[in-house]
Design goal:
This protein has 244 residues and is an alpha+beta fold. It folds into two domains: 159 residues, Nucleoside Triphosphate Pyrophosphohydrolase (Alpha-Beta Complex); 65 residues, Winged helix-like DNA-binding domain superfamily/Winged helix DNA-binding domain (Arc Repressor Mutant, subunit A, Orthogonal Bundle). It is 30% helix and 26% strand. The protein is built from eight helices and nine strands. The strands form two sheets. Strands 1, 2, 3, 4, 5, 6 and 7 form a seven-stranded mixed sheet that branches. A hairpin with a 4-residue loop joins strand 1 and strand 2. The longest helix is centred in the middle third of the chain and has 15 residues.
Length: 244
């Protein structure tokens, strides 16, 4: 079943597409939001029984971005608002059977999208033991992933933490309107550290591409906070942008 390096070198490589999906969820460890991602349990060899990123082979007539979106929908039921090409992973020893070159995408899913999907068309997925959500930086989970998926997730986290400093990632994890506290939650989750609320609020109010609205968040016990919106350019939800 398995092949050595020399045997794998003689076989035609397989081209596959995988997706890293990030979403914000409550974290009981810290009392704040953290990044989570869904994984699928492999039901066949190699690495049978181990968790892995959603993915699959690239069909002869399929585009990369369509394959990423379809694999994501078929395995998790999720439809991302943002899907971006991350990197290509093609080391010779990624798979013990034959060489597999994976084009990896990352997706950002808003928390309300996640719950809406799970309570509607995705209801059957909640009972699927082969699909589950995990903290993106859980060391125990990362240590037991199939293939080189730990390296892929850690690379995606590194890219996200760098990109959040200058991009619109916070906007993509929130709704069309958001409070400054919600933006801070995104930054704290992505950067995995607490930020001083007063300093962060002061810096954010002077940041480009974020402006206040005349709306306020309703439903709270205290004075409702003002809502803000993102004014920068946004990529089409399924538009690929190669950042490698």
């Amino acid at each position: 079943m398995f092949a050595n390096v020399a045997e794998r070198a003689e076989r035609q490589p397989v081209l596959a597409v995988s997706t890293v999906i990030f979403s914000l969820r409550d974290d009981e460890r810290t009392g704040r939001k953290s990044l989570w991602l869904p994984l699928v349990r492999r039901t066949r060899e190699p690495f049978r029984g181990q968790w892995a990123l959603p993915g699959g082979p690239l069909g002869p007539r399929d585009s990369l971005v369509d394959t990423a979106a379809n694999n994501l929908r078929d395995t998790t039921g999720l439809v991302p608002r943002y899907l971006e090409q991350l990197y290509a992973f093609g080391d010779m020893d990624r798979s013990p059977t034959r060489r597999v070159v994976s084009i990896v995408y990352w997706a950002l899913v808003r928390e309300d999208d996640d719950h809406n999907t799970a309570t509607a068309a995705n209801s059957e997925l909640l009972d699927d033991p082969n699909v589950a959500w995990f903290r993106a930086d859980d060391p125990e989970v990362l240590a037991n992933l199939a293939f080189d998926h730990r390296d892929i997730i850690e690379y995606a986290l590194w890219r996200l933490r760098n990109k959040v400093e200058y991009g619109s990632i916070a906007h993509r994890l929130l709704g069309e309107r958001f409070t400054l506290a919600q933006v801070r939650e995104v930054y704290e989750a992505v950067l995995d550290k607490a930020l001083d609320p007063a300093n962060f609020r002061r810096q954010l109010r002077t940041a480009a591409n974020i402006e206040e609205t005349d709306e306020f968040l309703s439903g709270g016990k205290h004075r409702p906070p003002r809502l803000y919106r993102y004014t920068g350019s946004t990529t089409h939800p399924l538009e690929s942008e190669n950042i490698s």
